[in-house]
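Summary for the funding panel

The consortium committed to producing paired sequence-structure records for every protein in the target list. Below we show the first two records in order, beginning with the earlier of the two.
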Amino acid sequence: MTSSTTNDEFWDGPGLLRASEPLGTDECWALMAGQTTGRIGFLNEGLVTIFPLNCIVYDRGVYFRTAEDGVIARSALERAAFQFDHIDTVARSGWTILVNGRVERVADPELLTTLWGRPTDEPWAPGQRNLFCGITADKISGRRVHPTH
């Protein structure tokens, strides 16, 4: 496939003016702590499904509200991935973090009280979102990208 873009001098370049560095686990958690939205990816009826979600990062877990009868709650969510990103299009820099792990409905009354009491954005999707689920991280990977000059 050929590109019709002829005026972009970096289109065919090897990315020599770019740098990419892995993020450590502690740095990933620190960056995620300030985030309130991300994307969950999971298998649903044999297909990869990805939804944007509001979330709470708390005590090294990622928590989100969903509908009791929604796609997420109805799926056999044994494992999922949750992705966070920060992008600065002007500086052409940013970071991305992927949390992989088990998904469970939150049943602990003390944790539910804590989660309901934390400030969070209203879910973007319509309808009741009264079921809290959490992802317990088995693996976290992150990467920062930025210009070299």
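The next record, for a separate protein in the list, is shown here:
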Amino acid sequence: MNVHAEGPPLWTPDELATATGGTLRGAPAVAINGVSIDSRTLAPGDAFFAIKGDNSDGHSYVAAATGRGAGLSIVASERVAELPADAPLLIVEDVLRALEHAGRTARERSGARIVAVTGSVGKTTTKEALLFALGADGPTHASAASYNNHWGVPLSLARLPRGARYGVFELGMNHPGEITPLTAMVRPHIAIITTIEPVHIAQFSGIEAIADAKAEIFSGIEPGGAAVLNRDNPQFARLRAAAKAAGIAKIVGFGEHKGSQARLLSVALQPDGSTATADILGQTISFKVGLPGRHIVQNALAVLAAAKLAGADLCLAALALASLGPPPGRGVRTPLAVKGGQALLIDESYNANPASMRAALDVLGRIPVEGRGRRIAVLGDMLELGEGGETMHRDLAGAVGSSADLVFCAGPLMHALWDALPPNRRGACAPDAAALLPLVADALRAGDVLVVKGSNGSRMGPLARALAERFRANSVPAEG
């Protein structure tokens, strides 16, 4: 994903061979302008890395990649005999290791200022906001979607154009020790930790352990680099200490706390966005954000601080945030054609935890409804919360009570919330999202606004997509 990306080819076959230590066979394309691990989305001339994953093996798709015009397929030496004889190949010992080597080489040759983002919540939206903000100042590359793991990060690095002025990379983790090798590859000049919350806490001894795992990002920061940390989060002091221990002298806090160097001075929250004024490292600036929610404004402070630290024009960065839109599953709004008029679907189905659930409910509560319309929360289980999971679900009752008129619950954990709701707010409760779908569909009426949210494993994404398809705004809903 690039903004204003132009210039020489991304790779030549010889460069990839040198970077990976591989051997070329056949007639590869002269210039490689893309890198892919998915033959279905591969563009002609791309390099196809045939990675073996948990559910599929890329070597099974080399023929398809070649048919789609792959300029080169990077394959394991032990699999060459089963591949098409006419396929242009780069033969390596291990394809994933080769991708990592390519990523490191791209990083080493780049003169871009690099920003890395991690945190329990808000990584992808913050990464997208950085793409807008830095892209207003110069050619900017950012990792696509949520490519933040052991294959997503090197893939994103391997796609880093030579001429990029800025690079933005998202780093994720489910267990301790996962961020250390990722930040060693990315080597950021600036590291942002959006917040620390009880996400994946089942894999950790407590919230402090999550903070320590996120703090691994500091181990890869370039000399003279900076850490941008949430000053309003209870784990700020722990993160600041970890940054200092890693030798980072420039530590910037963001938030409403009076000690923040990127400090929110005022904010007006609207249903479809926000306006704010902030002091960003001594410069007062007013800006608009094209996404709703206080949490979005909070992370915009980190984005603007990072932009200034990276040497970008702060005014251009702030102006660009007005055009920010939601990534898939993170607040995309779709009108639904229901009997008598329209309803509005807000798809927040890309994962959930107590903090992001409350943020989504807060946004729902600020959206005006018309006529007999209601604010409806359609919620699936929040997973990987450990022994406290049932309590964390029950504790959402207060946030629901101030935001939603009607609640639909899917999953065994959400039953704890259902039990805590007053009868007049109960829509329906079902064992899973598939069983909940027809109950939500039957309940919709004109003027309703509904948010759909849950962990990926709770399958709320398919529910949201099914609602969007069933009530497409250009269709005529059935009477009855």
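Regarding this second record: Residues 294-309 form the longest helix (16 residues). The CA atoms of residues 383 and 455 lie 6 Å apart.
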